[in-house]
Amino acid sequence: xxxxxxxxxxxxxxxxxxxxxxxxQPAFLLVTxxxxxxxxxSMVSAGELLVQDERTLRVALWHGTRSxxxxxxxxxxxxxxxxxxxxxxVRAKPERLVVPEPADLECFELTVTEVRADVHAGMPVTSGIxxxxxxxxxxxxxxxRQRQLLANARRPN
Length: 157
Prior knowledge:
The structure is a single chain. The protein contains three helices and eight strands, in the order H-E-E-E-E-H-E-E-E-E-H. It is α+β, with helices and mostly antiparallel strands and 157 residues long. It has a single domain (9-148), classed as Electron Transport, Fmn-binding Protein, Chain A (Pnp Oxidase, Chain A). Strands 1, 2, 3, 4, 5, 6, 7 and 8 form an eight-stranded antiparallel sheet that branches. Strand 6 (86-96) and strand 7 (105-117) form a beta hairpin. The protein is globular and about 50 Å long. The protein starts with 8 loop residues before the first helix and ends in a 5-residue tail after the last helix.
């Protein structure tokens, strides 16, 4: 998979709307660069990510966070996904989106520039990074609203 620029099917499935209802959720790592060049890591859920197509993701971040500020400045973003048997790194170029309604979120479109997998024969990854929500129904409702906001967001004129 080295050097490809398409999202792998396993990542697309992990970000599918059906996955939002589970109490146990995969966590994804979003890495951006601070103004001084230092890496900034934030954890995002499937409810904050939306696959547009196999070359485009959208992400919603809380307003005013350093990660949102870093994406707003441009530069490269890196999204990491770790699951049993798979470690995927997606490098992407961010572009700010305009949301159609007031929200305490900043939304970005990530255009995939490179996808890599980290696989080592004889040493498979046996578990992923996950979290558990105590209120899966409420979390799924909130995430679906965020995803709808992402779906309806548009590029600036």
